[in-house]
Amino acid sequence: MSHAVNGYPVSKAHLMGGLLALLVVCGGANAEPSSKAERSTDEVSSLGLVSHLRLHAGWAYNHYREPTLDVTFAGPEVVGGVLWLGEPDWVLSSELKLGQQHYDSPGSGSRNGIPNVDWQAQGLYALERWAPMWRGVHSGLAVQVIYTDFSGATSLGKSGYVRESRRVWWPLRWTQPLSRLGWDQPGSLEVEVAMLLYGEQVSRLSQVGGTWQDAINRQRSGISLQLKRVGTGQGLQLEPYARVTRMGTSDTVGAGAAHTATEPRNVRVQLGLNWSW
User: Which of 33, 122, 262, 269 gives 20 to 30 Å between its CA and that of 228?
Assistant: First the structure.
């Protein structure tokens, strides 16, 4: 997301920095295993095809900031998702966040009720299958799409525009039972680090009017860190998490006569609690 404009170029931003991450505690859930209809449970298990399907719903708080410009988008999100564990090797997941954000910037004014959609899907594989030393580690690919409808005017009359983020990540996830970490509690701790492989930011600047044209910026640097508590019991469980995403400055492209567009460095923090079953 970028700051509102009103006939002047979208400027570059120099990041102040972003750190974070704090977790709360609770448990997680696993559904009953299901077998393929045409095979016995033992046969399916021996082939590594036994799967677990888990659903979750929850609430999150999203805080996005461009530090140099002092621009923030923040607000609550509702969360829904599905997780498929193809034991013993595969983890497939899809999650959707729907939010309403508040925009604030000293130079551009403020605005409430900005719709935001954040969708992410992952496919991970157990590295332990290749090397026993990688016990508890999964890796693969993740895709993410973020859509923010910032069209319209702010409290100071500055014009906004629709934003679309499209990203491909390389995640590395490490999972360990809490008992192995010295905590006398059920459940596991997930630590996931993801590096950006490809990113582009679409800015519908033509909505501003004048000689502005839509711009597509390429993002080449980004990293995210997520800490999550997951459970191992059955029934309804609580799974808290914290996620920090830091994106680097994009390239600069033309955005109409005498205009250029650059996506500034930014930091996004998401804190949430899911109910899993």
Answer: 33
